[in-house]
Design brief:
By secondary structure, the protein is of the alpha+beta class. The chain contains seven helices and five strands; from the N terminus they run ββαβαβααβααα. The strands form two sheets. Strands 3-4-5 form a three-stranded mixed β-sheet, with helices on one face. A hairpin with a 6-residue loop joins strand 1 (about 5) and strand 2.
């Protein structure tokens, strides 16, 4: 079975190829750890939620050789899995921050059983935000625009102007 993504010259895995490989093995993983893949986004959480109990993912490019595998193995040998993943995340991000001259570094440990509840909470939030922007006061819309601007996001008001 070819797991590589052809759009990258056959050198990269895709979400679908990872999930397909695990599903074809008839295995349920305790954890999936992707330390240098820029895959910490909710689309990947949802895509992998059924193949593992935990996901440990980084959002940004990471320096050097990736995670501290010796720390992870030692933590797994001496702690419950959630504590071990938390220990590894904290140690690894601190190491990246120390070793790299610049850049943003993070890593999340996610319990996949919580992903559906997270998705519902995000949907509720975005529904309220959308309703507030569509039907709220001018002051509320201005506040949303300012918050979006400060976060470097496209402003709903700018989008509406562009649509005209």
């Amino acid at each position: 079975m070819d797991l590589a993504d052809k759009t990258y010259g056959g050198t990269h895995f895709t979400l679908n190829s990872i999930v397909s490989a695990v599903n074809k093995s008839n295995t349920h993983l305790k954890a999936v750890y992707l330390d240098a893949c820029v895959m910490n986004m909710c689309e990947y959480w949802y895509g992998m939620k059924d193949i593992a109990d935990y996901l440990m993912l980084s959002t940004f490019n990471v320096p050097g050789d990736g995670g501290s595998y010796d720390v992870l193995v030692n933590a797994l040998a001496s702690q419950d899995i959630e504590s071990a993943l938390a220990t590894h995340c904290k140690y690894t991000v601190q190491k990246w921050d120390k070793d790299a001259a610049e850049g943003l570094h993070d890593m999340s440990a996610i319990r996949t059983s919580d992903i559906e509840a997270f998705g519902k909470a995000v949907k509720n939030f975005t529904d309220v935000l959308d309703d507030t922007y569509a039907n709220g006061s001018a002051e509320a819309k201005e506040y949303i625009d300012i918050e979006c601007l400060q976060q470097g996001r496209l402003l709903p008001g700018e989008l509406r102007k562009a649509e005209k």
